[in-house]
Structures are given as structure tokens and as C-alpha cells.
Specification:
This protein is 35% helix and 29% strand. With 394 residues, it is α+β, with helices and mostly antiparallel strands. The protein folds into three domains: 4-83, Elongation Factor Tu (Ef-tu), domain 3 (Beta Barrel), CATH 2.40.30.130; 89-242, 2-Layer Sandwich (Threonyl-tRNA Synthetase, Chain A, domain 2), CATH 3.30.980; 271-393, Roll (Diaminopimelate Epimerase, Chain A, domain 1). The protein is elongated. 33% of the residues are buried. The chain binds zinc ion.
């Protein structure tokens, strides 16, 4: 037995009586002879509310029938339904706002609406459009709000598909169509719930756009949602202004300047870090003494091998007869000065070939990862270094 959809004729119906269909004993999934509950479809989420006081968790469109998924089984077969009106009315505002917005996009920008999604915070439509500038977005927002202020009637009619004229988008359904008409603006085949008067979607806020698979995704909010979101945005801006200690209208300048200063400071920090590392490399060289083959070798464990460690190594190796080995938990760096007679790249490559790992480099500096348990020991021996060198350097 098909479920009679009461919301088709009256979207404002909040309470209704119905009879359960089929066996309801111990079942959470209930079918009724008629319902005012809207099932998830056409971009609009399902209603919430209760059947005989039991909360509804989902409403599913199964074609002819609508399934009501309850938190616990229903008692009895006579049912009193009550819809969460706040949620439903919000959905009606967003959905009617979407029809108007799509119609205006069609007229102003010749941009068809490809899809509609109603989220819990904001809704979006995907427009067949390559670009939408800030100026166009503002003009569009003014236009939809002006149209809504005109208080057009929103009505529902049932028309045969073959004779239904002037639809924004041709329906691919046959038989009787449910058509939502917004006087002067739009006629669309739609099964959703809508407000009676266009002014009920006010205000309409067009929030932002984003490119999506070659089209434009436009985010919007209508009615109380738009006010709530604007208030939330304003609160965030006020907190930023307070944080910046600037008047509200100078906050953007403040953060632009701050960001530039941060970039400059970071560059300066990196320059000083490099300078310090080079100095450390030279100091370490001067403090070391040559081994039997005349090379001054430095072996260190470090937390990570970053730019600063590389600068230190290069400074160390810029001196005569020098060799360096840096070991971090996940990589190794080995280097020899050009006059050392040793080849860092070759030593590392040979270790990797024997013990496992990856990496490479030049005769003076090579870096990589060793995977085998004997890797570090083998690399150290091949370069003439003595382990352990457990003086961890941050
Ligand atoms: Zn619709």
C-alpha cells in the first residue's frame, strides 16, 4: 500500500493521525497509510519528530512507501505523528530559497543548477559556470533579496508532464508532476517542502564560492540560519579585533602587516640559524684532532638532519682533511672534504648495497636511510669513524 504524502499538499502540517500498515510488532521500521514526515530526497534531509512519542531517527523514501525508522518499537497500530517543526521550517526556507536562487542564476548568469545539497549549517548549489566574481556574487545577493521582498506566492500544482509548460528544468519523469510555482520567478518539478510566501526566506545570504570539477559551488543560507551565521561570523571578527587590539575596521590591515612581519622574521631566523650552524661547524673542526690517517673526524647523533645540520656539516667539511658522520633516528649524513681521499657517496652506496636502505649524494656529501640493523656500524667503519657517538645534539 502506497503511503499518502501529506506534505505534498500542506507543508505546514505539523501533527497528524495515521494507521500503521503491516505487522508493527517489535519493529523499528514503520509504514503508515499516510504521513507528514518528509523522507531524505532531492537534496533535502529527512524530518525528525515522534510517532506516539517515540523519536524518529530516519525517514526513507522507498518509492511507493515511506519507511519511518524509530528509536524503539511502536506500540499499537493507531499513530499520532508530530514533526520537529523548527527543523522542518528551516528546511522549507532553505529549499524555497534554493529554487529562487537557481531561477535568478538562470536569468542573470544563464547558469543552470546542476545539483543542490542542504547541509546542517549551510547549503550549496553547483552552477554550470566557469567563474563567479565578487561583484557578480554581490549583485546576485542583492537580486535574490529584492525578489524575496516582493512577497511572491509559492504554490503547488499537479500537472501532466506532457502539458506542463515553462519549467526551469525539463523533468525526466512522466505522468503527473508536482510543480512548485514561485509567482513571477520559477516553476520547477519538485517533491520538497516549501514556504507559502517568498518573503519567508528572508534574509538570503550568499556566503562564498568554490571551483568544483569545472563548475562553481555556491554556498548560501536563508532565514534564521543566515542571521545565526552572520552573528557567528561577527563574533569571530570581534574576537580577532580584540586580539589584535585594533578598531574593527582596521583588523584586516593589522593581520596583513602581522603576516608580513612573521614572514620577514622567519627568513631572518633561518639566516641566523644557518650562520650559527656554520660557526658551530668551524668550531667543532678547530676543537677536533686528527686521527692516524690525518683526517679530523666528527661523529654525532642528532634529533633530525635538517638544513641547519647540513650547514654545520658543510662548514666542517670546508676545512682541510675533514670527515663528518651525522646519525639521526631516521636518516644518516656522511661527508668528506675534497682533499680527504675518501668518497662519501661511494661509502654510503656500498653500505646500502650490503645492509639495505636508500639514498646517495656526491663525493663530499651524501644522505640516506639505512634499514638493516648493522647499517650504522658498517657505514661508520667504512668511513673510519668510531661508534658509539652518542652525544645527542638538538
Ligand atoms: Zn526543489
Amino acid at each position: 500500500m502506497a503511503t499518502k504524502r501529506l506534505y505534498y499538499a500542506d507543508s505546514y502540517l505539523r501533527d497528524f493521525q495515521a494507521n500503521a500498515v503491516g505487522d508493527v510488532a517489535d519493529s523499528n521500521r514503520i509504514y503508515l497509510d499516510q504521513t507528514a514526515f518528509y523522507p531524505t530526497s532531492g537534496g533535502q534531509p529527512h524530518d525528525l519528530g515522534t510517532l506516539n512519542g517515540i523519536p524518529i531517527e530516519d525517514v526513507v523514501d522507498e518509492g511507493d512507501q515511506i519507511a519511518h525508522v524509530l528509536r524503539s518499537p511502536l506500540k499499537g497500530s493507531t499513530v499520532s505523528g508530530a514533526i520537529d517543526w523548527e527543523r522542518r521550517y528551516d528546511h522549507m526556507q532553505q529549499h524555497t530559497g534554493q529554487h529562487l536562487l537557481s531561477a535568478v542564476c538562470d536569468q542573470m548568469l544563464n547558469a543552470a543548477t546542476l545539483s543542490f545539497h542542504m547541509g546542517s549549517e549551510v547549503s550549496t548549489i553547483d552552477l554550470q559556470l566557469k567563474e563567479l566574481s565578487e561583484a557578480q556574487l554581490s549583485a546576485l545577493e542583492e537580486q535574490v533579496n529584492e525578489a524575496a521582498r516582493g512577497s511572491s506566492c509559492v504554490t503547488v500544482s499537479f500537472e501532466e508532464a506532457e502539458s506542463a509548460a515553462g519549467l526551469r528544468k525539463q523533468s525526466d519523469r512522466s505522468g503527473t508532476l508536482r510543480i512548485v510555482n514561485i509567482d513571477h520567478y520559477d516553476r520547477s518539478a519538485c517533491g520538497g517542502t516549501h514556504v507559502r510566501n517568498l518573503s519567508e526566506v528572508l534574509p538570503m545570504q550568499l556566503r562564498r564560492t568554490e571551483k568544483m570539477r569545472g563548475n562553481i559551488r555556491l554556498e548560501f543560507a536563508c532565514g534564521q540560519r543566515a542571521i545565526r551565521l552572520a552573528r557567528k561570523d561577527l563574533r569571530t571578527l570581534s574576537q580577532l579585533a580584540r586580539l589584535a587590539g585594533t578598531p574593527f575596521d582596521q583588523t584586516l590591515d593589522h593581520f596583513t602587516t602581522l603576516r608580513q612581519r612573521l614572514t620577514d622574521a622567519e627568513k631572518e631566523r633561518q639566516r641566523l640559524e644557518k650562520h650559527l650552524a656554520e660557526r658551530e661547524g668551524r668550531d667543532l673542526y678547530n676543537a677536533s684532532s686528527p686521527s692516524a690517517d690525518g683526517l679530523r673526524r666528527l661523529c654525532q647523533r642528532v634529533a633530525r638532519i635538517d638544513e641547519a645540520q647540513r650547514s654545520k656539516a658543510q662548514a666542517y667539511l670546508s676545512q682541510s682533511k675533514a670527515g663528518i658522520l651525522l646519525l639521526s633516528p631516521d636518516s644518516v649524513l656522511i661527508g668528506f672534504s675534497p682533499d680527504s681521499g675518501l668518497n662519501a657517496g661511494a661509502v654510503l652506496k656500498q653500505t646500502i648495497a650490503g645492509c639495505g636502505g636508500s639514498g646517495g649524494g656526491s663525493p663530499t656529501l651524501a644522505q640516506g636511510k639505512l634499514t638493516g640493523g648493522m647499517g650504522e656500524q658498517t657505514l661508520a667503519e667504512a668511513g673510519g669513524f668510531r661508534l658509539p657517538c652518542d652525544n645527542l645534539q638538538e
